[in-house]
Amino acid sequence: MTKSHITRILICLAILSTQAHAKPTELFDGKSTAGWANPFDWGEVSVENGELVLTGSPKYFLVTERTYRDFDLELEINVPVGGNSGIQFRSHYRRNRLWGYQAEVDTSERKWAGGFYDEGRRGWLVPLKDQPERQSAFKNGEWNKYRIRAVGDHIQIWVNGIQTVDAHDAVTAEGHIALQHHGEKGMAYRFRNIRINEITRPVTLTHIAFGSCAKQDQPQPIWFSVVKQQPELFIMLGDNIYGDTEDMSVLAAKYGQLNAQPGFMTLRKNTPMYGVWDDHDYGVNDGGKEYPMRDESQQVFNDFFRIPEGANTRRRPGTYDSFIFGPTGKRIQLILLDTRYFRDALVPIPDDQKDTLTGRYIPTDDQNTTVLGDEQWAWLDEQLQMQAELRIIASSIQFIPSEHGWEMWANFPHERKRMLDLLAEHDHCPSIFISGDRHLAEISKQTIRAKNGDYPVYDITASSFNRPGSEQNKTEPNKYRIAGENYIQENYGSIQIKWRGSTPKLTMLVHGIDGSVVRKHVESFR
Fold first, then answer.
1. Got the DSSP string for 12-26?
2. Helices of type H across 356-473
3. What are phi and psi of 363, to 5 degrees?
4. Is residue 437, in this structure, part of any structural domain at all?
5. In 23-179, which residue ranges form alpha helices assigned H by DSSP?
6. CA dihedral in degrees (448, 450, 453, 458; nearest 10)?
7. Are residues 248 and 155 in the same domain?
8. What are the tens digits of pLDDT across the range 418-477?
9. Of 200, 223, 253, which residue constitutes the final position of a domain?
10. What is the model's pTM?
11. What's the CA gap between 373 and 213, in Å, rounded?
């Protein structure tokens, strides 16, 4: 059995892997705040008698330096009567702001200590109203022992040995542990014996594959080549089917045809799969926010990709999402963009220019138009602040190329610039776009000036699984193209990652229908 096969099994079955006999890790050494940080501009943290002591105002959080996924956490907390606190888990933060899951610590008369709260997002998930047995677990004015177990979407909380929460929620799979001081002046909140037992440890990824454009009713032999390569993750980049309909039963049936393809079935059975949509699986060619069935289509998309209830794309408009894989020092952030749901209309090529330009569209000069929409842009800004050693951004349409007249980010120059400006601001790790749509494959590179110097941004386009491009595409201009001319036959892409400490060396590949390498670029980062 190969190393890649073993890694894929570990990822697929992670929540089944337990370390019941592993020795818990001490998150607090009783002497210092090593391993913790205060991302707020206020609040005082000290160590007294083997206890972490939090004081100060307004509300703030002391946060672990690393993130945790599936775990069993235990700690003791002492909060004065009149105080309010919480134990955060799977949480995220930026300066002076934190959001994520919380086990409530409540000394008020309502007695909701041990409840399940979503700080900075949805509010109460499991309040303990009218549950006297659970409400009696917490003892005011005493040390209280909390236990939090999070495995997959299963969240359990105990207070002094009494279970107060047994719930399922899939919004956040990984994040920081944090201790809250609610900001009550003059009150000291004390924590001790903070221990965690990681149930599944993050798996280091070394091989990711991706591709786009699968005509569901045509042969798809390329899947067997992908299976032989044994990627640890596979990312569908849109036009996953050719739906082109406002009838959701037709759309679902076409997804069913893809799912019945033997090679695809084998890949999906053995490899974690993520996806974005493009126009044809969205429902209309070159479509954007004007498509009347976009909400219904999103539900069909979610069903096909088996998105769990409560997950981000089940509870908000748009299919965008983000995931982090791997341990600290080898983290890969996967950002899945939605370039359809919110996108404004494209500008057609004027009749008097059709003889001199290729494609259908020209760049807009309307600064009020958008690709991602305000909410997705705000979300993306937060995601780009997350700590990782490599960032992969899935966009159904090409990001770097800018000279053809088909769909691309360059049709909205102000949106493309906005993205580059964000990447320049958050340049703490390499950024690789992966894209589809074009029925050709190519590797593009644009170097921008960023906060820490020159910053290369890549775009690996992989398209199509079973619909080759035209000869005309071979000569298409692209001043950013590297690794030879574009490739118009059936193809898929991959990224192989070789870690040198926390620094990735990337081999970016385009594979032909038989799995052979047809385009290649190697980049070492420092």
1. HTGGG---TTSPPEE
2. 374-383, 413-425
3. -65, 140
4. yes
5. 132-135
6. -40
7. no
8. 999 999 999 999 999 999 999 999 999 999 999 999 999 999 999 999 999 988 888 899
9. 200
10. 0.78
11. 25
